[in-house]
Amino acid sequence: MSIDLQVLPSLLAADFSRLGEEIRAVEEAGTRMLHYDVMDGRFVPNISMGVPVLSAIRKVTKCHLDIHLMIVEPERYVEAFRAAGADSISVHQEASPHLHRTLSLIQSTGAMAGVVLNPGTPVHTLDDVLDLADFVLIMSVNPGFGGQKFIHGALQKVRQLDQRRRQLGLKYAIEIDGGVDASNIAEISAAGCDWFVAGSSVFHSESSATAVRDLHARAVTGRQILG
Hints:
By secondary structure, this protein is an alpha/beta fold. The chain is built from 8 helices and 8 strands; from the N terminus they run E-H-E-H-E-H-E-H-E-E-H-E-H-E-H-H. It has a single domain (6-226), classed as Aldolase class I (TIM Barrel, Alpha-Beta Barrel).
């Protein structure tokens, strides 16, 4: 399995009064992917960014924009987010009853398609779509708010997903979101994770650029353990 390790700064934690500056700082540190959370106040108890903000961000960065739809009826908004600049779009297993159809819709727009699991949802619920998904996002906090503590049980899900893709010869990336920081990213990487969403640990640090570099170095160290 050869997927580049990526630290994805989560823009939800950035200073919105200087968002362009925040993005440039992490880009200069080598960031190639940015994470963008969309919340509707229904699927999760919070409201965040939408299509217009994404359109503005697309104008100031060439980074891969990874859009996480924490919303009901995500299929209704796939094409709008793709048109606004999304490079990958993920939807929750819990919010999409026609999951195969929704993932296929995302891919039909030219974007990468991902499926997300909440902390209380087991990995086996994805067995019938793993061959279709480009990536799987494991929530290591309950979605809706930044700054939460990492739920350690997420590591077992990462290990299960890594084992499944090896056994089945699949190529999906494994992504994690929630509570990722310098104290745990090496262990998460050693479990088989490839993409690490980091919000508070990047944008609430003294230097977001330094934080990104440090997190990436620790992820690489963890992956060497996995072999």
